[in-house]
């Protein structure tokens, strides 16, 4: 669980925000007091009178830890600090000096029921020494409840790669803003429940965790065309196109058309099927005035006919969602092909498709932003951590989606939901964030062991929660 709609800052951006707060007259001591007090407020509730061990490192994360220890002791708890080395300067040293309770060395620390981790936060620059990582893991294993200050110690703040942080931490209190490590990669299995403490640092960013979208009811004047006509292009595996079409219908589109050479087979009666002869015919049809959005790729196939459908569709100046086989066909030429378009494009690659199209280095957020900038597309980089990035630098991240989503057809459903959002006029990362939220919520409502059709059935209820 991560807080929805919360800002996400890299380590550098957090430091810059902190500097800006200093420039406004907030002292570092004041910030550290606020951070420690915020963590202590939660810790005292979770501790429920049990003995507490507070781990304090040499930097400002350790400084926070001394403040937490002081508050918990004042609250009447039995608190022991285990220090990995005393802080030597600045606010952390002053907080250390204000600690009047017992202190032991990290290596001699006993296991206690409640563990507060203040060894390292955003300042980690290299993997934890093995001996520190081992002691830390042992203390976490022995505790009934572990709370990490800002980040579990031993995480790469900007990528979410673990640098020695153990599993088993129950909760992490992010200070001032989320960091990428709370929402990416190993962070998903290291942070536990993530809480966010507002410590009064003004934060400006275009990066946020996904929140429940606010969707609009159709108005009294609405009709099927005003609510978005979405064309889904069918291909070699017609079931995938039909699934996307049904998701677009249940996702709130006013009118959904399934377009293909032989759009046949079981489909809802409300789904309009349109036969086309060839790629030229497809392009003519998609260019029609009434069509608001095109979804292409689910079950498209990768043969020459599929390729010709893709090229013909790309030449049509309509908002377009590209998924599955369309992404494989674009391959390494994706950025150039998409950048040549005028109308907006959304692409929904999973990790394998993304790597084949864009490769790149750095965190998942960095790589997704680079792909968006190079292609001009809004990129929905799917996974346990779904990262959405727009060419304007906006980022939205969704975590915590049901692991049962890892089944065939769920990607087709997402493409259909996104098509419905785009068809209704939603734009950029907001359209994609709404789609991934609805998709994730439908999966929660479907419970365990569902299949993609059942996800579609849950969409109306998910939408109902957003009205
Ligand atoms: N940025 C902010 O807005 C605020 C930050 N605060 C705290 O400050 C933390 C960041 O403090 P610092 O920048 O001092 O960094 P840390 O306290 O995370 O750690 C820095 C220290 O650890 C050392 N170090 C780094 N990697 C190591 C490794 N693998 N093994 C051993 N030593 C290692 C560094 O050389 C440095 O001495 C945040 O996580 C947060 O807890 C809060 O006090 C208040 C506000
Ligand atoms: K920590």
TrEMBL record:
<dbReference type="InterPro" id="IPR029056">
    <property type="entry name" value="Ribokinase-like"/>
</dbReference>
<comment type="function">
    <text>Catalyzes the dehydration of the S-form of NAD(P)HX at the expense of ADP, which is converted to AMP. Together with NAD(P)HX epimerase, which catalyzes the epimerization of the S- and R-forms, the enzyme allows the repair of both epimers of NAD(P)HX, a damaged form of NAD(P)H that is a result of enzymatic or heat-dependent hydration.</text>
</comment>
<keyword id="KW-0413">Isomerase</keyword>
<feature type="binding site">
    <location>
        <position position="350"/>
    </location>
    <ligand>
        <name>(6S)-NADPHX</name>
    </ligand>
</feature>
<keyword id="KW-0479">Metal-binding</keyword>
<dbReference type="InterPro" id="IPR017953">
    <property type="entry name" value="Carbohydrate_kinase_pred_CS"/>
</dbReference>
<comment type="similarity">
    <text>In the N-terminal section; belongs to the NnrE/AIBP family.</text>
</comment>
<dbReference type="InterPro" id="IPR036652">
    <property type="entry name" value="YjeF_N_dom_sf"/>
</dbReference>
<dbReference type="InterPro" id="IPR000631">
    <property type="entry name" value="CARKD"/>
</dbReference>
<dbReference type="GO" id="GO:0110051">
    <property type="term" value="P:metabolite repair"/>
</dbReference>
<keyword id="KW-0067">ATP-binding</keyword>
<keyword id="KW-0456">Lyase</keyword>
<feature type="binding site">
    <location>
        <position position="299"/>
    </location>
    <ligand>
        <name>(6S)-NADPHX</name>
    </ligand>
</feature>
<dbReference type="InterPro" id="IPR030677">
    <property type="entry name" value="Nnr"/>
</dbReference>
<feature type="binding site">
    <location>
        <position position="150"/>
    </location>
    <ligand>
        <name>(6S)-NADPHX</name>
    </ligand>
</feature>
<feature type="binding site">
    <location>
        <position position="412"/>
    </location>
    <ligand>
        <name>(6S)-NADPHX</name>
    </ligand>
</feature>
<dbReference type="GO" id="GO:0052856">
    <property type="term" value="F:NAD(P)HX epimerase activity"/>
</dbReference>
<feature type="binding site">
    <location>
        <position position="153"/>
    </location>
    <ligand>
        <name>K(+)</name>
    </ligand>
</feature>
<dbReference type="GO" id="GO:0005524">
    <property type="term" value="F:ATP binding"/>
</dbReference>
<dbReference type="InterPro" id="IPR004443">
    <property type="entry name" value="YjeF_N_dom"/>
</dbReference>
<comment type="function">
    <text>Bifunctional enzyme that catalyzes the epimerization of the S- and R-forms of NAD(P)HX and the dehydration of the S-form of NAD(P)HX at the expense of ADP, which is converted to AMP. This allows the repair of both epimers of NAD(P)HX, a damaged form of NAD(P)H that is a result of enzymatic or heat-dependent hydration.</text>
</comment>
<comment type="subunit">
    <text>Homotetramer.</text>
</comment>
<protein>
    <recommendedName>
        <fullName>Bifunctional NAD(P)H-hydrate repair enzyme</fullName>
        <ecNumber>4.2.1.136</ecNumber>
        <ecNumber>5.1.99.6</ecNumber>
    </recommendedName>
</protein>
<feature type="binding site">
    <location>
        <position position="117"/>
    </location>
    <ligand>
        <name>K(+)</name>
    </ligand>
</feature>
<feature type="binding site">
    <location>
        <begin position="121"/>
        <end position="127"/>
    </location>
    <ligand>
        <name>(6S)-NADPHX</name>
    </ligand>
</feature>
<dbReference type="GO" id="GO:0046496">
    <property type="term" value="P:nicotinamide nucleotide metabolic process"/>
</dbReference>
<dbReference type="GO" id="GO:0046872">
    <property type="term" value="F:metal ion binding"/>
</dbReference>
<keyword id="KW-0520">NAD</keyword>
<dbReference type="Pfam" id="PF01256">
    <property type="entry name" value="Carb_kinase"/>
</dbReference>
<feature type="binding site">
    <location>
        <position position="240"/>
    </location>
    <ligand>
        <name>(6S)-NADPHX</name>
    </ligand>
</feature>
<feature type="binding site">
    <location>
        <position position="411"/>
    </location>
    <ligand>
        <name>AMP</name>
    </ligand>
</feature>
<keyword id="KW-0547">Nucleotide-binding</keyword>
<feature type="binding site">
    <location>
        <begin position="60"/>
        <end position="64"/>
    </location>
    <ligand>
        <name>(6S)-NADPHX</name>
    </ligand>
</feature>
<feature type="domain" description="YjeF C-terminal">
    <location>
        <begin position="207"/>
        <end position="466"/>
    </location>
</feature>
<feature type="binding site">
    <location>
        <begin position="382"/>
        <end position="386"/>
    </location>
    <ligand>
        <name>AMP</name>
    </ligand>
</feature>
<dbReference type="GO" id="GO:0052855">
    <property type="term" value="F:ADP-dependent NAD(P)H-hydrate dehydratase activity"/>
</dbReference>
<dbReference type="Pfam" id="PF03853">
    <property type="entry name" value="YjeF_N"/>
</dbReference>
<comment type="similarity">
    <text>Belongs to the NnrD/CARKD family.</text>
</comment>
<keyword id="KW-0511">Multifunctional enzyme</keyword>
<feature type="binding site">
    <location>
        <position position="61"/>
    </location>
    <ligand>
        <name>K(+)</name>
    </ligand>
</feature>
<keyword id="KW-0630">Potassium</keyword>
<feature type="domain" description="YjeF N-terminal">
    <location>
        <begin position="14"/>
        <end position="207"/>
    </location>
</feature>
